[in-house]
């Protein structure tokens, strides 16, 4: 007798190489069972919470009016403490640049598979990595997503095709870095620290930046698969921009919430190193990407981290004022390479590697 899943063979992501190429040829046929990730409950979305998702107006944070600035700093602190995520408006990055970087990112993923082979993922510290799923070699099931990940800082690297991509990506990476730097100043202030405290203690000005383009093709059975599993980001601050198609869900007090950003806004989240630096006041929040069966979704994610050689630890002022030290000191390079080895992100937190009391 034929096995029950004959119609949905257990294809391995590494054999597929690109889920976009696979989806293009698969049409509306059932998806391979190796992409089923239904163990992660999908019916618990709390839509009534979406309207309370925080919004921060960047132009008020940079306002010369001290009252407007102080008020925005306190909103920023509240957003980081309560959600660990917020939508950033009026960030000053032009619509033209955002459109260009999105168009070129899409063009990259649309290049024939052969043309992208030279960028195939050769491990976490490679400067340019193109691949599919999340950790295709070791994960329990695969994810309906292709990626391009490029280290754009401390040195700028970038694929040389399609023409013009490198130039707009350079511009976008620099501008988002400046926005992240200003946000870190506001976040420092919101913790009662000197504005440059986090920038200095994490070596931010010689820090890591990774530019990621995620592409999620339409999935004929979106209720069975995920684009990205629940995870936290490893750096300090992540800035996400999507092509108008929803899919990001944020875990808020145990419930999944759909994020519906305004056009041209950025979605920002506090990541693992910020949780450690803030001694746990600002948590690194779990998020995931869900799929749809109509539209290709792209997200451009710029992850901003510390200097790889810097030892990251809670700010001493917070430890003295608070409940004692809650995170161990760890060099960012060590943390970065450790988290790349985590395979079962569903039930383990990367931060348990540095949490002094993993219950916290
Ligand atoms: O595409 C998304 O909405 C999520 C992407 C993400 O979380 C990541 O790249 O770390
Ligand atoms: Fe993420």
From TrEMBL:
Pfam families: 2OG-FeII_Oxy, DIOX_N. Residues 203-306 form the Fe2OG dioxygenase domain. One of its GO terms (molecular function) is L-ascorbic acid binding. Keywords: Iron, Metal-binding, Oxidoreductase, Vitamin C. Signal peptide: none annotated. Belongs to the iron/ascorbate-dependent oxidoreductase family. PANTHER family: OXOGLUTARATE/IRON-DEPENDENT DIOXYGENASE (PTHR47991). This is Fe2OG dioxygenase domain-containing protein. It comes from Acacia crassicarpa (northern wattle). The lineage of its organism: Eukaryota, Viridiplantae, Streptophyta, Embryophyta, Tracheophyta.
């Amino acid at each position: 007798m034929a096995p029950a899943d004959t119609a949905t063979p257990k294809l391995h992501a590494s054999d597929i190489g690109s889920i976009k190429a696979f989806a293009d040829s698969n049409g509306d046929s059932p998806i391979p069972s190796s992409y089923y990730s239904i163990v992660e409950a999908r019916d618990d979305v709390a839509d009534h919470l979406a309207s309370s998702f925080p919004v921060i107006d960047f132009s008020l944070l940079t306002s010369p009016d001290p009252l407007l600035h102080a008020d925005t700093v306190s909103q920023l602190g509240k957003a980081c403490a309560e959600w660990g995520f917020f939508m950033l408006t009026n960030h000053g990055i032009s619509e033209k640049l955002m459109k260009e970087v999105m168009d070129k990112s899409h063009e990259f993923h649309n290049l024939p598979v052969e043309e992208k082979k030279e960028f195939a993922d050769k491990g976490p510290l490679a400067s340019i990595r193109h691949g599919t799923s999340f950790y295709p070699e070791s994960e329990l099931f695969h994810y309906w997503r292709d990626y391009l990940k490029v280290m754009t800082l401390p040195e700028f690297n970038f694929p040389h095709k399609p023409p013009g991509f490198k130039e707009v990506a350079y511009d976008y990476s620099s501008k988002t870095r400046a926005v992240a730097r200003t946000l870190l100043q506001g976040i420092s202030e919101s913790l009662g620290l000197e504005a440059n405290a986090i920038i200095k203690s994490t070596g931010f000005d010689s820090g890591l930046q990774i530019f990621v383009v995620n592409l999620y093709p339409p999935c004929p059975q979106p209720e069975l698969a995920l684009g990205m599993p629940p995870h936290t980001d490893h750096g300090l601050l992540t800035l996400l921009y999507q092509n108008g198609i929803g899919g990001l869900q944020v875990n808020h007090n145990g419930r999944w919430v759909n994020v519906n950003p305004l056009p041209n806004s950025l979605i920002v989240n506090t990541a693992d190193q910020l949780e450690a630096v803030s001694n746990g006041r600002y948590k690194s929040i779990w998020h995931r990407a869900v799929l749809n069966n109509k539209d290709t979704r792209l997200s451009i994610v710029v992850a901003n981290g510390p200097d790889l050689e810097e030892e990251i630890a809670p700010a001493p002022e917070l430890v003295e004022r608070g409940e004692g030290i809650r995170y161990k000191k760890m060099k960012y390079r060590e943390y970065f390479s450790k988290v790349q080895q985590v395979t079962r992100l569903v039930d383990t937190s990367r931060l348990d590697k540095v949490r002094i009391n993993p219950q916290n």
